Amino acid sequence: MNEIYFDADILAIRESVRQFRDKHVAPLVEDCDANERFPIELLEPLLEAGILRMPLPQEYGGMDANCQTLSVVIEEISVAMPALGSVLLSCFSPMRIVGAVAKPHQREAFHRLITSKPMVLAFCLSEPEVGSDARAMHTRAHRRGGGWVLNGRKRWISSATVSGCYLVFARTGAGREDISCFVVPGDAKGLSFGKPERKMGFRAQVLADVVFDEVEIADDCLIGNVGEGWRALTMVANTMRCWGAAAIATGLARAALDAATLYANQREAFGRKIGKFQGVSFKLADMAIALRQSQLLLRDTNWRVDNELPDVSARTQAQVSMAKCHAADAAMRVTTEAVQILGGCGYMREYQVERMMRDAKAIQIFDGSNEIQRVIIGKYLLDTS
User: Fold this and answer.
1) Span of 36-50, 62-76, 126-140, 362-376 with lowest mean pLDDT
2) CA 306 to CA 321: how far, in whole Å?
3) pTM for the whole structure
4) What share of the chain is helix, strand, coil (3-state, %, to 5)?
5) In the chain, where does DSSP find H-type helix?
6) CA 328 distance to own-chain centroid
7) Are 290 and 330 in contact (CB under 8 A)?
């Protein structure tokens, strides 16, 4: 299907990523899920394919990829392995934030660090007692000598134990928005990790606590100015929901619809293909409607964000929440129906739709829960009425 929001360059990137996915990612899905294993062997191929550093400037091996491009990449990867889509989200987000708010010398230091070797990155915001209310964080940073010292604990951090660099938000003052953003190298002294979580889905993604115990970092590891961390979150991180979680959900829903449609065209009962039964064909139709709605909302939102950055309007911010919320709910609905259409086979690991359903649930929770997205949308409507 033609996409009016995609130019020739994006279409070429999409085809390239599809080929990469089918060759390198798809063969690892079952093993990584069954053994809860991070596919570390994909680091070099991702780098060689030009995917790992896409948001970076060209001189550092990137292509200055915009939101629409990153969304396409993450969606296509997530058709096979949503957990890897989440890993890429955790890589791309720090690159985008540093690119948007860092000073030139900070940006240079960050780029040197993350291009020193192939690595994934981690985005450290949530804490044991702080989830949706990010401004209540307890992790602190204070000056010491010519640098900074971090103390605190971040929770549910994607790629926690395998990252080479961590983008960390920490409190630097007494006010609720006195939050600053820091880059912490993966080999920093005092950096440690909790036990990797055992999860319902996204099993190829390592999730664990990241602990900062008197972690000393250089002054150029501060990103932007002191106290500008909340601005970075609202200006850049909030909009990542449309090219991040929404894209992961959309790719996952595509895979589930394809699997259900294929099965309905092959499985026979009562002398005909089960897809010929109206009860099944109507399910497929509703799944396709939900998926297409997600795709169109996703494409349009990314187009708007790309055209409005760095000052994304409140209206578009609300649409970002709509895209994330709808895509996540649609993925949950589509994958659940896929399991139902496959019946007993759908409940078996061999057919993968049970994994898709397990993965889909996480997207309604991470990157800002769907309940929080509805709060944002409702507030916008009431404030502008």
Assistant:
1) 126-140
2) 16
3) 0.96
4) 60, 15, 25
5) 8-20, 29-34, 43-48, 67-80, 82-101, 104-114, 229-232, 240-243, 245-266, 278-308, 314-342, 353-363, 370-383
6) 12
7) yes
